[in-house]
Design brief:
Distance between the termini: 53 Å
Shape: elongated
Strand content: under 5%
Radius of gyration: 20 Å
Largest sheet: none
Number of domains: 1
Length: about 80
């Protein structure tokens, strides 16, 4: 797998916390940010899947507005 080096700006206090976590669990900053990126991408995909499923259910129920969703939640 080809890799690409990135330069990012991070607050020093946050970087110290990251380094502390890295020492305990991951071994390197690169591994930390790689795992972070993968977890974020996976989370975004799960949300997209959930939203798509909700839209399909809403369409099947004839829901055409956000107000209808809130009305169902109130009942």
């Amino acid at each position: 797998m080809a890799t690409k080096t990135l330069n990012i700006a991070i607050d020093e206090k946050l970087l110290k916390k990251i380094d502390s976590a890295v020492k305990k669990d991951m071994g390197s900053r690169s591994e930390y940010f790689r795992r972070l990126a993968l977890a974020d991408l996976e989370r975004r995909q799960r949300w997209a899947t959930l939203i798509d499923a909700g839209n399909k259910v809403g369409k099947n129920m004839g829901i055409t507005s956000e107000a209808q969703v809130y009305k169902l939640l109130e009942d």
